[in-house]
Amino acid sequence: MSQLDSKSRKLVYFAGIVVLSIPIIFLGMPSRGAEGSGGKLAQLRGEYDLGEATLGKVDPSSATMNLVLLGFRGVASSMLWKQRIEQQENKDWAGVKATTESIILLQPHFLEVWRFQGWNLAFNVSAEWDDVRDRYYWVKEGAKFYQEGTVRNSKFPELYWDTARVIGSKVGNSDEKRYFRKYFLNDPDEETFGGGADPDINPNGIDNYLVAQDWYQQANDVEIMPGIDQHILMRMIFRSYPARSQFDYAKALQDEGLFNEEGHAAWEKAYDMWTTKFGREVFITPAGGVRLEFTDKDLEELAAEDGVTVEEKQYWTDKYQKNVNYRYWRTLASAESEEAARDAHRNIYDGKQLYRKQKFQQSEKDKEQGGGTETWGAMEYFDQGMKQLETLLRDYPDLKNEMAAVEEAMLAVMYWRNIYELRGEAIPQTFPLQDIWEANQGMVPEIQLQFQRENTY
Amino acid sequence: MNLNFDKQPIDILQALANWGLIFGVLVCIGLAIALIMSVANNKKKGVSRFFENLGEGLRDLFGMSLKRLGAIANLTLKEAIRRKALLVFVVFAVLFMFGGWFLSDTNNRAELQLSVYVSFVLTAIGWLIFPVALILACWGIPEDIRLRSLHTVVTKPVKRSEIVLGRILGFIGVGTIVVGIMSVLGYVWILRQVPEEVQSRLVARVPVYGSLNFRDREGEDSEAGVNTGDINPYRSYIEGASKARAKWTFDGVSPGVLQTDPETGEAALLVENSFQAFRTHKGVIDEVLHGQYTLVNPETDLRVQLPQFPIYEFRQNLAWIPRELIYYNEETKETETKDLFDDMVSDGKLIVEARCVDVGQFLGMARPDLFLRLPDRPFASSFFKSVFGIWLMMVLIVVLGVTASTFVKGPVATILLFTLILVGTGFNQFMDDILSGEVRGAGLVESGIRILNHGNPIVEKPESLEESAAVQGVDQAFTGMLWGVSHIIPNFNMFSFKAYTASGFDVPMKVAVLPALLMVIGFFIPCLMLGYFSLKLRELEAK
Fold first, then answer.
1. Would the CB atoms of B313 and A94 count as touching at under 8 Å?
2. B301 vs B318: CA distance, rounded Å
3. What is the value of pTM for the model shown?
């Protein structure tokens, strides 16, 4: 046993504490905020961006939970995951939401947790509900969840992209899009939002595709920061999304019958974003940097910079253009910006509206009196629209190879033929868009389904 | 807010008979062992010693003094407080001070928040009382022995049965104070936290359930509807615009079940459903599916079809059925009037048939998905019944803990009880599933052989195993043991009534409260006897 008395022992303990404190202070002293300040661990944390604050907003409740659980965070989060799955199987939606929030408290910087749970809320949970307003509510919950993810993890471009995907594609391109897009501007929960948009996901009360575009842009802004990568898409495709969202916006306006200046401007902006912003970005290929929108001079300069031939640059540019279907989207934006395209779509759209109202043809009396377009029936509108579409496709033959343009043409012809059948009249031997109709007979069953869907609800 | 389970009331007589049988067998085994040991230790005097002890034991158990019990219980209470058992309130206060931060979500639906708040409070109370009861009960008597205070007590005119029961009562007293205060505070907290717009939903609905039968699309009787692929087979589905029906038969229907319809001000029968929709095609997207009830007199088969109604999933779909039923009779092609009780109810029985209106779509339902609703009780009724469930759980933990502490030391008793609770909470259902054959996996040895051979439970049993009597025999023995264990370890899930309270239902006495109460009593009696004899026969110096 020690020969020291109590006082001496305490002094020895104290000295030991002081000595041991020196390496602890050296290693663990917290940072004062300035770069390079603090102990070794704080410096390393700063160097490798591992600090809580550098990942995103710090949530004190989350940090507390992890501290309190000591080393049992993994066990606790696994139990919560299991519990959430059971709650979902039992359709305990309040529990699902609450458990999801708890999981996030424990795993705030685990990207896949945010991605999985956000998707689950927006796509899986929403599909479990029958009322379309309920489904929209859960889609919003998914979007808000992703948004919260971006706040807590400001350097994960994937989460910005996921937010945009829910707001853009889920709201704008699902079976319920007709309602979801409307609800995005005028939330069905009138009691809470007073008939306006839910400010948490649409603070400015604008179109869902424009909000999505903003999120895609934020994803791009984060993605371009040094040391950050995204791991969900080929980089070039990932960066094309802000412009693609503008295309979706223009197309949605067109599908909803908005053929005014707003619709026209949307296509022009899409063209502009595609060619002058996305198209002018430099992407790295095995032959160095390429631009998808280029001039001969660009090619020569880039080739000289990277010490490769112009042909090599041309080869890789062409290859990369194909990856994002660059030329098609450029042609589409260019074509749709024209007055003729707008007229063609408008006439086909008006034809469909009149078909639903069962006004198939201009009356004989109106015809005799030389009535204007306001007296036309669906047949006259389809005739006119099909002719204009045929001209457009002749001017922009590239569009003939694309599904969307062919579908529109085929569908217009199907409506037009159906009117003849309903009226018990023989279908003319020759008609506009005939070459497309005959060349794509394999698509008829699919177009038939689309035709039925458009006329079912 | 729906129930996702279907609990049936227990057969009390059958339960008592089972308990009596198991209790009797265990007592007989215990007595036989005691007799053998007594004879082995005392030779010729063994038998008389055995009966002396038995007689003394019975006197001790049935002749306890309330005064002495009260004194021991009082001392136990004071000791627990001195040991800072009430520090649990600090944790409770912290939880509730900051709980709102974690739970409140202004964007979340108010009605969904409600169940989250209620679950949180009841879970918090349950989880906080659990360690307090466990540690106090398991360490009380062993500490007395270690500190030799029990040596002093046993020299006084106190029976050992009084020590055991006094300890139990004292710890129950501590637990009651803790649960009582936490539940009142929790109740107030819920009232304050729940958004104003859903305060009116803080009620305890009182359902009257019927029995459910199905008819298939051809109109033939069937046990269940269609399985639409839902991972949870709880609900069965009926096809829309077909002869498929779900048929509930209610007993004891009398004018007493009527309530005042707030719209008409007249007495009416309130029927609530929580059906779920399943679409095979998109249909009309912005319209929910529709259902329709038909009231049927079980004797005369008189049928009255009621108006169609929309199904709003995961909400309360209410239908007020007036006493005077005016309906269009398809056969006579005339509008007729019938009285709900005089014409539709026979011997207190009423049949409610439900059908899905929409072609090609399905409605899903389980027995508790349609019920007659009696006047609501206050939320406090359901909340405090749930608290009573937690209290019963605490009592059982104390009883088991004190009993265990009479024959093993504190740490061992704690681990033993913790294991019992763990198995009784998390593995009870699993054991039942194995015994009932629900879980595929065969017996212990066979499973081991399958694992070594990389054969999953789906693979056909190899012939060698089929024929091996040894494997079958050992497996049967293990299964028998599992059966015993599953019947001896209490099912702690029986004490959790929070699903009812969180879903806005009153906690049913017969289905939930009574079985839990009986279970505690069922464990209390043998545990008291075991605890007493353990303490009486053990050598106190063997610390």
1. no
2. 25
3. 0.81
